[in-house]
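Task: complex structure prediction.
Instruction: return structure tokens for all chains below.
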Amino acid sequence: MQIVVIGLNHHTSPVTVRERFAFADDAIPAALELMKARGLVEEGVILSTCNRVEIYAVSNRPAAELQQFLVESRSYTEAINGEIFVHQEPASLEHLYKVACGLDSMVLGETEILGQLKKSYDLALQHKHTGARLNKAFQNAFNVAKKIRTETNIQRGSVSVGSVAVELAEKIFNDLSNRNVMVIGAGDTSEKTARSLLSRGARSIIVANRSFDKAQTLAADLGGRAVTFETWENEFTQVDIVISSTSAPHYILDRAKLVPLMKLRRNRPLLLIDIAVPRDIDPEVNTLDEVYLFNIDDLQQMAEGYLKQRREEIAKCEEIIRQRARALLEGLRRASTAIEPAAFRPAHA
Amino acid sequence: MEFLDRDYFKLAVVFYGLSAIYSVFVWRKGFREDNRITYILMALAFVFHTTALVKRGFSLEQCPVNNIYEAMTFISWTMVTAYMVIGAFQRLRFLGAFAAPFLFAIGVFALMPALDVRSTTPHFVKGWVSLHASLILLAYGTFGLSSIAGLMYLTQEHDLKFHKLRAVLSRMPSVERLERVTNRALLIGFVLLTVGLGLVPMIVRENPSLQVKGDPKVAWSIFVWLLYLALLGWRWRFSAGGRAIAWGAIGSFCFVMLTFWGFTLLSPVHN
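Output:
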């Protein structure tokens, strides 16, 4: 018996194929029950997310049988041309660890997958579809994810513009919970950035737009309040973070306008995020004391910098994963009575 | 072989030096790693430093602030004591990376033989004078900490202004927090200095022969007090920004450090 993984993910198949294999949460226990009843697996966990459908199992059956089950259970009638992958030990364990650490994710180092993996494992555990081997493997995977998170930079930093803006805010302000945010103009990115700030505890949102109706709609969506475009400067004394993305062809905020406003604010720190093209805010204002200005290029460069840093950490993470997989397999081999790796033959070998 | 108090202080300076060297690595890594090693090295230095002060104090049977060597060791001890407390908070631990080089430099200077002149009778009288000297030196130590926090503020502010990735990758505290630490240290130091200087009338009452009027050190002390009052006033009354106050804290402390000994030597009252 050994741990195997079979499935498809964003590396091996497009979303049009992946969505055909997706399992709803309530269908997973029954699918695992069926696999066990047919003698295909002794233990099993199914992970089904938007980017992957993977079955982790303890089995000594040929891979072709597991693949057949997967295809039949999803009623997939088209030909399989490499969309479904198979790994056996130690690659299956290494794959599990990589998935847990976010190394196999579309956004390198993302942390959401760990929660999804834990949820899938808990579901299988609750329905008694896991045993000694998978329990050890998954517990070890969660430990490896924690080790990699603390010892490497693979999960440090943000790779979206909105998250980078939040990190910058946290480097400027001691505490976001009593900060007021103003959104001037409208746009997807500014809305996402505002939401990111709110999710990290920013106190309130003020929305200003040339169209008051649009301002009201966005403000209602964000739980804030709207002001007319002509009066946004009046709110400045209370605002700590400004996200600007108007379609104005000229600067709406320059040094001459900002200096007296900063005096009214008693020189409290001010974060300006200028997402507009052409820019809304005169770059000169960045030279003012307590004023921090970032435009869209700055945020994107920081996000790319984070991604580059994450990529540099891959080798270190893979070495940790290899060592831990080897250690676990050694432990499992000592504990188990017999292993017959030859009985498991990949379908495409 | 018995260890003298100066030997313990030399050991403390060695550990400040090691911490300063390690600080270079921490700096080059962009303050990304947890700064436990600096804290440990500084803690070891603190133990030896405290031992040195206690031994000297017991041998004199009073607070050891009687010559320039003792004054320097006391000021630097104040700084490292404050760091031990502040550095217990992980986010502020990087203060050590900035403080270590300062403390090493002060320690090396203090160890110059000519500065540790011991006479058969103490230079100062006990009681109010000891309290006066120790409060003022505590104040200078606190000003030292404010200048270090100011330096950290300027570093972080520079990285943010120039959009360096290091600004977000590092584990340094926010600029607002650093500004707060700088301002609070300035305020605490000013209060200590005010109380310390406020004891002078009592000292004069006990020693009517002391001529404080026209004494260079007394005039210098009043100037330093006014300097820090102006800095605080600039912040609170005129809302000076963080950068201005940080430079003010650093500049003022550098002025104190560079002129302290000169005016002490010129002062008949303090010699």
